[in-house]
Amino acid sequence: MLVASMNPCRCGFHNHPEKECMFSTGMMQKYLNRISGPLPDRIDIHIEVVPVNYDKLSGSGKTENSAVVRERVVKARAIQAKRFDHVIGVYSNSQMSSSMQRKYCQLDEARGRLLKTATDIRGLSATAYDRILKVARTIADLGDSPNINAEHISEAINNRNLDREGWKG
After folding, report:
1. CA 122, 127, 129 angle in degrees (round to 5)?
2. What angle do CA 122, 123, 125 make, to 5 degrees?
3. Cα distance from N-terminal residue to C-terminal residue, the chain
4. Are 130 and 107 in contact (CB under 8 A)?
5. Sign of the alpha-carbon dihedral angle for 112, 114, 115, 116
6. What is the DSSP code (8-state) at residue 46?
7. How many angstroms from the chain centroid is the CA of residue 158?
């Protein structure tokens, strides 16, 4: 598993809600181009995290207890272990082969169109398409859903910020 982070630009303020980036689009593009296209393509989830102001941090909004989240993750892992119990060396959705993906990530026509539209609009590669399907299957498992629904696909697509139009300037 790889977990990585990066600044969106050299000054760190690109897409900041309150501060303005100090660099031109060309300079920012040069900075971001240091990351080869195939690298982010092979990362399942990339999320842009914007700064949160003090009022939101200190607010008493509803939060989910870590124990509840852990329970949901353990249950999803058990679903995946059962799904792949007949396959040696495969323990999670991320390890699915193409044939397994066709079996366990089936989409009806409407859901297939949703993913096709996202693929066309964002110009996604076959690798990104596969990653989205596997993440959508995992999101469905976390929700204890036997099928991948439109909201699972949408969430998986939205968890790929580096594919988003305009992110790179």
Report:
1. 50
2. 120
3. 28
4. no
5. positive
6. B
7. 6
Q: What are 40's two structure tokens?
A: 């982010």
Q: What is the pLDDT of residues 141-156, one digit of tens each?
A: 999 999 999 999 999 9
What three-state secondary structure class fits 143?
A: coil
> Phi and psi for 149 in degrees, rounded to 5?
-100, 170
The tokens for 165 are 């139009």
Length reported for the chain: 169
What is the 8-class DSSP label of residue 15?
Answer: T
CB 111, CB 152: distance < 8 Å: no
pLDDT confidence bin for 132, thresholds 50/70/90: very high
- Alpha carbon distance 162, 164 (integer Å): 5
Residue 132 tokens read as: 């989205």
CA distance 153 to 144: 15
Q: Taking Cα atoms as reference points, which of 79, 104, 81 lies closest to residue 91?
A: 81
Q: Are 100 and 133 in contact (CB under 8 A)?
A: no
DSSP state of 142: H
